[in-house]
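User: I'm writing a tutorial on reading structure tokens. Could you give me a worked example: one chain, its sequence, then its tokens, then a sentence or two explaining what the tokens reveal?
Assistant: Sure. Here is the example chain.
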Amino acid sequence: MTEKLTCKMSDGTEWEVVIPPRDDIYGNPHRCYLKPIEREPREWWSVVWNTKERGARQSQHLFKSHDEAARWAKLAFGSPPIEYDIIKAREVIE
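And here are its predicted structure tokens:
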């Protein structure tokens, strides 16, 4: 029976250690190998808005969904209304 273990490296990546079944009379395993665990990328969202000072952009990071970002923006900018955008963050490392 093939054994699979999961380990987390110091850089945060997860790997699967695959140990094939033992095949000789001494119980020596075939070669073990590491395989990276592929995770689907998560989308992250950010709310950005212009400040009054020289048109600088401010942002509030990071929201796990567009809806969560919209709820935050509605609470933060509901009165008086301020123009804002909800954008997809480029890349996030958890």
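What the tokens reveal: The radius of gyration is 24 Å. Residues 45-88 form one domain.
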